[in-house]
Amino acid sequence: MRKTVCGVVLAGLALLSGCAGPEPFDRPNTWRATGVNDSNLAAMAVRPADLARGRGTGRVDGQVLATAVDRLRSGQVKSLPGGSSGASAAGAAGLTGN
Q: Rounded distance, CA 76 to CA 92, Å?
C-alpha cells in the first residue's frame, strides 16, 4: 500500500515538473512578432502620412448617402458593376433584420 502511494506521488511530481519550465516564447533568441502588423499596414498604405493622421472625406452629399441607406433598409440594394454573387442582398437582409 505504501509503495503504491509513493508511486502515485512520484508520478504526480513527474507530471507537474514539466509545467515548471519557462514559457517557450520567453526563451532568449526566440522570434517575437512585435510590430509586424504596423509594418504590414505601413507597406500597404499609399500615403504613409495617412497612418499618423487620416484625411477628411471632402465634400459629402448627405442626400446621396441617405438614399443609399433607404435602399439598404428596403432591400432594394443596387448590384455591383460586373455582376454580383448575391452577397449584397444577403447583407441587406441581415442588416434590416429580415
A: 8
pLDDT tens digits, 27-78: 777 777 788 888 888 888 888 888 888 888 888 889 999 999 999 999 998 8
Distances 76 to 12, 61, 70, 71, 90 between C-alpha atoms, Å: 66, 20, 8, 5, 11
Instruction: Report pLDDT for 17.
Output: 66
Q: What is the pTM of this model?
A: 0.29
CA distance 42 to 38: 6
Distance from C-alpha of 80 to C-alpha of 63, rounded to nearest angstrom: 20
Q: CA angle, 15 as apex, 12 and 21 as ends, to 5°? A: 130
Q: How far is CA 70 from CA 6, 36, 74, 93, 95, in A?
A: 75, 40, 6, 13, 12
